[in-house]
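Class, look over these C-alpha cells:
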Amino acid sequence: MRTEQKSKYYTELIEKNHNQLEPFYAHSFMTFCELNYLKNEILNCLLFEFYQASIFSTNHFLERMVKLTLIKNHTQEFSYAEIQKYREKLDESEKDYDGLTLHNSLAKAYELNLFTDKQFEYIKTAKNRFRNPFSHAQVSKINENATDFGGFMFDFNEVKQNLKQGTELRMPERIEIPKFSPAISQMLQESNSKEIAFKYFKSIFIILREVEDKVFNGK
C-alpha cells in the first residue's frame, strides 16, 4: 500500500470510528490517572480497527485496574508529603498484591468490598472468556461458538478445460475443514475480535469509572 493510499485509508477509519470513541477519549481518570495513557492506546487500536491488539491491551487494563484498586485502597491516606510512611505502605502493597494472579487479586478486592457483586461477576466472566483465552492463545476457547469451515474445492485446470469445451462442471464433494486448523482458527479469531473488542473495553472502562467515583471519591 502506497503512502497516499495508507493516508486515505486511515483517514477514512478516523472519520468512521471517531464519534463512537470520542466520549472515552474525552474522559480523564483522576484517582486512576496512571491508566489514562493505556486507555488512549486501547482507543487508538479501536479507532484503526486493530481489534485483537485492543483486546490484548484491555486484558492488561483489566488486570492493572484490579491491582491498582488494591494498592490505592491500601495507600489512600498517605502521599508524597509523608514520603516515609507512603514508602512503607507501598512496600506492603508490593509484597501483598503485586505477585497475585488475577483470580486472587480479584477475590481480595471483592473481599474488601472494592467491587460490587455485579462488577465482580463481570470481571470473573471476562477473565474466563477474554483474558485467559487471548493471553494463552487458546483458540479453542476464543472460537468455542464457531463451527467447522465448510466448502468446495475445485481443480482450476479442470474448470478451465470444462469452460473451453463447454461441458458441464462437475460439482465436487463438500469438505469440512476443522475450525482448529491454523488458518481457519486465526480467521475466526480476527472475526470474533471485531465483535467483542469495543464492548469488552467499554465494560471495563465503566467499572473503573464506577470504582473511582464510589470507592475513592465517595459519590
Summary: The chain has a mean pLDDT of 90.
